[in-house]
Amino acid sequence: MVDLLLVTGLSGAGKSTTLKVLEDYGYFAIDNLPVTFLKSLVRLIQDTKFSKIALGMDIRSLFDSSMGDLIDSIKDIKENNKISCSVVFLTSTKEKILERFRNTKRSHPLMKQGLGLDECIEEERKIMERVSVIADYVIDTSELTVKTLRAKLKTSVIKKKSGIKIAVTSFGYKYGIPLDADLVLDARVLPNPFYVHELKHFTGYDNKIREYLNQFSLTHEIIKKYSEITDIIAKSYSEQDRSYLNICIGCTGGHHRSVYIAERIAELLRKNNYNVKRIDRDIEKEQ
Questions:
Q1: What is the spatial distance between Cα 5 and Cα 8, in angstroms, rounded to a whole number?
Q2: Which of 137, 161, 185 is the last residue of a domain?
Q3: In this structure, what DSSP letter does residue 195 have?
Q4: How many domains does the chain have?
């Protein structure tokens, strides 16, 4: 599925800067696309290898279209099951926009209509209001520097759409701790099903192993404590702008306890909206 971020808003509110920030986070940026080209672009990106696209559209995009055309196009894209579309609307106070235009010496797009800068800003705000109502994220850049805008985009848009990728890996200590482990948790404290004759040939995915381990209160306490630890580490890694976390959970052979605990931890992390991948490093090895 293609992740499409449509960046729009008031002229002078920071659209170009926002697109540059999104490029740094892996988005392919396209600026100032006319509304009439939007449907064609959507058809094209469905069959490309681009997974993340940031599309800049503002008052200039209405060149030969109406605001109603843009609204209808956005609604159509949001109904497309091959594209995840979110709208980011940038706004700012009139005073700040005036200051930015005067500092850059650039002309407002509506000045071609013979309006003064004050009138352009007010007219554009009225026209663009309909888009702000349907936006997924509205960001006021009045008091934001480039640095704080980047931080705002990261916390309110980028992190919600992607977030840290977490691998939860089960392993056997007798084969060594995974070299790429960020966090190692030990499941050997739990009773070992290997020493129960009728259970030794099962794995942590089998109901018999789950039932055996669930009869011990220590199992539930370990899952509770380990889920709290992993949530703390995941949040910390996210705040440090790290993109990947490998949580490794070990038992003696990597067949029973570690697999079951890893499954439970992964399940709890997913409930907290983390992107989780499960790996069993040693489950195919001989017991």
A1: 10
A2: 161
A3: G
A4: 2
Token pair recorded at residue 37? 């080209």
Tell me, yes or no, whether 147 and 179 share the same domain. no
Q: In whole angstroms, how far apart are CA 63 and each of 58, 157, 231, 286?
A: 10, 28, 48, 68
**287 lies in a domain?**
no
Give pTM, 2 decimals: 0.57
**CA gap 208, 128 in Å, rounded:** 61
Measured CA to CA, the distance from residue 168 to residue 161 in angstroms comes to 21
**How many angstroms separate the Cα of 227 from the Cα of each of 34, 40, 235, 249?**
48, 46, 12, 12
Over the stretch 161-207, which tens digit does the pLDDT of each residue have? Answer: 555 789 999 999 999 999 999 999 999 999 999 999 999 999 999 99
Burial level of 173, CB count in 10 A (0-12/13-18/19+)? middle
Examine residue 49 and state whether it is found in any structural domain, yes or no. Answer: yes
Domain endpoint, select from 161, 177, 206: 161
Q: Which of 203, 195, 213, 185 is nearest to 269 (CA)?
A: 185
Residues 125 and 173 reside in one and the same domain: no
Nearest to 135 by CA among 276, 267, 9, 275: 9
Domain that holds residue 123: 2-161
* Residue 68 in domain: yes
* Tokens representing residue 268 in the block: 């709890």
Residues 157 and 176 in one domain: no
CA distance 150 to 24: 10
Q: What is the pLDDT of residues 200-228, one digit of tens each?
A: 999 999 999 999 999 999 999 999 999 99
Q: At CA 269, angle to CA 220 and CA 21, rounded to 5? A: 160
Token pair belonging to 86? 């979110």
Which SS3 state, helix, strand or coil, does residue 185 take?
strand
